Fold this sequence. Notes:
This is Integrin beta. Keywords: Calcium, Cell adhesion, Cell membrane, Disulfide bond, EGF-like domain, Glycoprotein, Integrin, Magnesium, Membrane, Metal-binding, Phosphoprotein, Receptor, Repeat, Signal, Transmembrane, Transmembrane helix. The structure is a single chain. By secondary structure, the chain is an alpha+beta fold. About 20% of the residues lie in helices and about 25% in strands. It has 13 helices and 41 strands. The chain has a 6-stranded mixed beta sheet, with no helix packed on it. A hairpin with a 2-residue loop joins strand 20 (about 425-430) and strand 21. Helix 4 (about 135-145) runs antiparallel to helix 5. The protein is flat, with a radius of gyration of 53 Å. The model is unreliable at about 30-35 and about 730-744 (pLDDT under 50).
Amino acid sequence: MCMSGSATSCEECLLIHPSCAWCAQEDFGRGRTLTSRCDFSQNLQKRGCDSRFIEDPHSSISVLTNMPLSSKGSGSTQYDVIQISPQNISLSLRPGDQTWFGVQVRQVEDYPVDLYYLMDLSLSMKDDLDTIRNLGTKLALEMGKLTSNFRLGFGSFVDKNMSPFSYTAPKYQENPCSGYKLFPNCVPTFGFRHILSLTDKVDRFNEEVQKQMVSRNRDAPEGGFDAILQAAVCKEEIGWRKEAYHLLVFATDDVPHLALDGRLGGLVQPHDGRCHLNDQNEYSASTKMDYPSLALLGEKLAENNIFLIFAVTKRLYVIYKNIRSKVELSVWDHPEDISLSFTATCQDGKPLPGLRKCADLKIGDTVSFNVSVEARGCPPRGTDQRFTIKPVGFKDRLEVLVDYQCDCGCSRTAQTNSSICSSIGTYNCGTCHCEPGYLGARCECQEGEASSMYLSACREAEGKQICSGRGECSCNQCLCYESEFGKIYGSFCECDDFSCARHKGILCSGHGECHCGECKCHAGYIGDNCNCSTETSSCISDDGKMCSGRGNCVCGRCQCTEPGAFGDTCEKCPTCPDACGTKRECIECRLFNSGRLADNQTCQRLCKDEIITVETLRTEDPSAVLCLYKTDHDCVMKFTYSEHASGQSILTALKEPECGGGPDALMVLLAVVGSILLVGVVLLAVWKLVITIHDRREFSRFQNARSRARYEMASNPLYKQPVTTHLVETDFSMYEKSYNGGVH
């Protein structure tokens, strides 16, 4: 990097890179090119350069004034209140060498406050004038809660007393309200009038307000910006104190005129940003200059540390507390060749890179800022550079003086017509700068001299061309030709900075430097033409995996190894086994705000696919993959995953998962009980039916048997009559003996 061949002096070497150093030792590098004196410091020492002769300056900081921060604003020390530390520093910057310094800011308690009340006295404000009659007393009571050192001032405005902004007819000069029935009397129109300088006598404020009367202008906008600028820049007349907070309360009911509005009245001269109050404390240039621009107004308010407050209904002390709850650094007179970056450390102690503001502070809190500074170049010699860092609205500031380390220390002892340089050159930092017409390390030769001895010294090897055919041999050394393609250099003009491999027509792919036919790649690149990046961040997929776990990162690009995978990070793969699982998480978080990616920011970052919701999912597309998964509620969610020709992934999903109707426990219970009862009844009925059929069958059989039995009583061998008749022959006359049932 340092030995690129472009540096022929110490100053040129230091500008190449902040790590480059120059060896000013006289006998260093003999037989080498001049550029060999420019290298890293450690390399120069390894090659024999004594550290005493090495020019290697670094950026440094010197604190000139660093008074401690104050803790209280009022009292005997109010004129010496310190709210920023340090107060003065000096920077010695080497171009490209970044350094830093710290700044502390504290808003002290009980700091003095100057409040100037600027009121619109146009006719539309007549009702508000009654409202502020006792405003001074109220303001003093409110602000007394935050500071014991409070002063009030008062001023008013209407508009430019000229057409078309005001009524200019003679009858309106003394009373612009003449003929206006609703309010027939008012005071003449005026631009801005300073009425009461800042004072701690609140009664004076109330008295002056009591005396005020409204005026009248023609158009709706007012001349408020004229008044604001005069109140800001007329510091002595208003009475602004250097050691106080400056609050300018602006009360109006309409928009103000802006720059260029004055041209309607023929005012072409821009506002000069200066104070123009006459002996009557009125704005004397109201009809001579245009209204101020917003940029000019902002510049003057910041320059004089004035907070502009547009009157609102909230209590003023609340607004003041909000103002004091913030600390923001601003930079004044920032040199163009110096870059600044800020890191804020607020009350939580966490560094916030890129921020120069802290909020939500309490009065008395201390905040810190780290300021990194780097010079991008060297200004003309003798340029005095300085800039200022100040908290917005504070009088305190940090003055920064800048000195550039663009000259080498050894240059201060340069010797003109030195004997080391054959008395025809200047010896400076170890090298000779020859007078025109002379050459050589010691100016020992004249241009045009040539001999066989000199010519042999200009060949890299026997048989090679003199100076590689790309230069002339003069005084024992090669003078290389100039080329439209780049630079030819080297002891034998054997090297150049353009004969290197290219990629897409760009030398060393734009990621390296061509040195003697070889690409020297910048950090993060490799390869013959430096087209291969070693950076892998471009291969990290949204889920944090290298090439989505489906490929390898080669030269900063993913080479997908999984069949079917494609995309910048192999993130697209409808045919991969895990495709459905990957897309499922996006369906869950995007449609139902559930799942692992339910956090809104994570879901938006990882799930950028287009999701289409449908009532019925069609699966006719052969290129679409159907995915299903079971939800936490035992439902089935279906979606298809496909890749559009534009390269965008498209997910088509059901609006709601498919769920079977859940059983009603009561109905199930009733159904089971009913079924049991029904089965019991059926079984009983069947049993009854079987018994009945059986009984009827048996009865029928009995009846049949009975009907078939046709016995007579007498013919029944088993039956005997209960009465038996016997015929007995006796001596007696025959008689008949009967018995029945054993009775004779």
